[in-house]
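ok trying this again, last paste got cut off
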Amino acid sequence: MRSSIQIILGDRAKAHIANKGLKPEDICAIPAAAGGPKGLILQGLDQYLFNDWLGADHLQTRAAKGVKPLQLIGASIGAWRMAAAASSNPAATLKRLAQQYVEAQDYSKGVDRHEISRVCQAMVQAVVADEAQHMVKPTGKELLVWVNKGLTPLHYAHAQQQRARVRGFASAVVANSVNRNKLATYFERWVFQSPGAHTDWLKQTFDRIPTRIEDLDALNIHDALLASGSIPFVLNPVHKIAHALREDHPEVKYHEGPFWDGGLTDYHLALPYHRLDGLVLYPHFAPTVTPGWLDKFLKVRKAKPEWMSNVILVCPSPEFVKRLPAKKIPDRSDFRRYKFDHRIRIPLWQAAIRESERMAEDFSTWLGNVNR
């Protein structure tokens, strides 16, 4: 039987593995893309990575060797996955996330964005539970949550009016089709990070979209995660996110929104990973990395090869996808495809999660081979 995974190596990653193999401490960052239900196909791989290969024993070894914390970088569902991986018990939290995502979204035909927003807010609360403080300051890890703030054409006053919001996003689509950097007029990229995270590589300009970095806190992680997954026209924006509390400023203040899905500007997190010293392990549901959500419709717009030189991308193989019960990876269109009959959708999504365990097995086998 053919492998369930496809592994795509950047030039720097390929040379490193050929000469030295691959050890857990070689990995400096793990990105997690936006993509809604598509992230479910990575459940098995996430479980293996964060509970075994990059689990508690590795984190102790990492600290003893003086290796920098592992950066967990996520947008939208990817941010939810990485927050779960940052918890004190990744196995249980990742499982809870998958269960919530599959079962809590029992929408009826005609559901509106207010109901979807309510359900997603409850999902975030259930996933975070009593883990907020640990997710914010995880042991041996750093969590980075991607969010977008709407600027003038999409700002708070405009976002209250549906027609104005539609016009603003339509304008953004046209501008992006001309040049991705034109999104700087519409969005400001916000990265909510674990306090003290090593994010100098992001503070150097890498495109014209303005980037702002703020600290995560137990006060703001719920809203930051919800905002990271707030797809325009599907969910409502998050209107404000609390500042992280500081000892010298204990009063709670707020960043004013509207805040939207982190994937709008950075759908698959096509970032300048080549600036990092180590290798980047990228569990992904696709063999290509698309910069922004709006770039899905522009097939030629992909991540810059030089930025991906130190990346190890692991994704489902085409043969594996064809063998899935639905012969495809779960996605948001399934709600309509199965006519909101959750008796059909839920078992198919659950089956995909079970099948994803094969990806973990095949990745473990690949690791054994490259380290012989």
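PB: full thing came through this time. The chain has a mean pLDDT of 94.
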